[in-house]
Amino acid sequence: MPALNTEFLDATNPQDLERAAELLKAGELVAVPTETVYGLAADASNAEAVANIFTAKNRPKDHPLIVHIGSESALAQWTRQIPDWLPAVANHFWPGPLTVILDKHPDVPAIVTGELDSVGVRIPSHPALLRLLSEHHLAVAAPSANPYKKLSPTTAEQVYDVMKGKIAAVLDGGPTSVGTESTILKVSGNHAQILRSGPIKAHDLAPYLPMPVETPLVHEFAVSGNKKEHYQPNAKLHLLNAENIQQQLQRSAPNSGFVVYGDLYSGHDHPTLQCLPSDDQGYRKRLYAALYELDKHALEHIFVLKPPENERWLDIWDRLQRACSD
Ligand code: TXA
Ligand code: MG
Among 35, 44, 178, 288, which is 20 to 30 Å from 199 by CA? Predict the structure, then answer.
């Protein structure tokens, strides 16, 4: 494929937003901001456009994509049936970082769902993306805008670096506010499960669901796209306890970087030491950005201080463990 001249568009400029919609409607790929991470979007009703996502990302074709819609009224186009449990959940968590798996509508292109009978749907809360979707009656299929298995981008510049020449445009909506991917919820009969942990936890969802919610450690619904190794920086990542982090810091090998949090390290920021906030929200928002920053230094190792062990940090543990795996 010849290299494209990738446009860099400003989400706060109405003309640029129009341009992004025009490109999407013409079947082009546009990277868009969401509140979680940047997505690599194509018109979800256009199978050919969606197929190009897999080429640009170098992603296996059987990995299902999430469909992003602008309002609940668009749901009927994507699912065969709106389940009874959905309205309460949607009212509370949408727009926001929650993807739900629903029975797919027969008209949904098979390339969107990786041939599955179900479809992942969410209403994202980034205001520019919401405007783009609702004002132009668009639904976009969008995986995170990173090459397969690499870190998800949280700024437009990161997307531009890795995707320029491969996609029509990047819409810059600023750094993402959440920083890691959405929670994925699947309900089958009387059984609710979190397939991918995320910023919204089982205990957040519980009051809005008529059945208990499980976060399985080993997924029963093993889906392609839910691979062990994923979200990886270029450097080798190691999760260490506080004592071992201290030892590595004292060795201060020139090819090593650090991701830490807590009072002990605050004020010790330097180019290869990223000190993140100690609360899960602040940490989540900065994690991928910090790993991207460290990767610029062409390090061999990144040592990450183990996060706290409680439910609010579950998704962060999940991402870090995948980032560490061989
Ligand atoms: O926050 C997010 O969810 C971001 C932004 C761009 O919205 N998107 C994202 O997409 O993380 P992606 O493609 O990187 O991850 C989508 C995940 C995969 O793990 C895939 O297996 C799962 O969603 N998924 C999609 N459709 C599914 C389905 N029908 N059944 C089960 N899992 C599904
Ligand atoms: Mg991804």
Answer: 44
The Cα-based distances of 245 to 31, 94, 111, 164, 241 in angstroms read: 37, 39, 44, 37, 6
Convert the pLDDT of each residue in 66-107 to its tens digit.
999 999 999 999 999 999 999 999 999 999 999 999 999 999
For ligand 1, atom 32, the nearest C-alpha belongs to: 223
Distances (CA, A) of 52 to 2, 17, 42, 96, 312: 13, 21, 8, 26, 36
Q: Tell me whether strands 39-43 and 30-32 are parallel, antiparallel or unpaired.
A: antiparallel
Between the two ends of the chain, the Cα-to-Cα distance in Å is 31
Q: Is 118 in contact with 103 (CB distance < 8 Å)?
A: yes
Q: Which tokens sit at 233? A: 């920086």
Q: Which two tokens stand for residue 293?
A: 């920053």
Which residues are 239's β-sheet partners? 304
Kindly report the number of other CB atoms within 10 A of residue 97's CB atom.
25
Nearest C-alpha neighbor of 74 from the set 94, 47, 51: 94
Nearest C-alpha to atom 12 of ligand 1 is from which residue?
143
Q: State the Cα–Cα distance between residues 42 and 32, nearest whole angstrom.
A: 10
Q: Mapping DSSP to helix (H, G, I), strand (E, B) and coil, where does residue 165 land? A: coil
- Residue whose token pair is 């004020």: 267
pLDDT for 219: 41
For residue 79, give the DSSP letter.
B
Ligand 1, CB cutoff 6 Å, lining residues: 34, 36-37, 39, 63-66, 97, 99, 101, 113, 116, 118-120, 142-144, 181-182, 184, 195-196, 223, 225-226
Q: What is the pLDDT of residue 93?
A: 98
Alpha-carbon distance of 235 to 307, in angstroms, equals 19
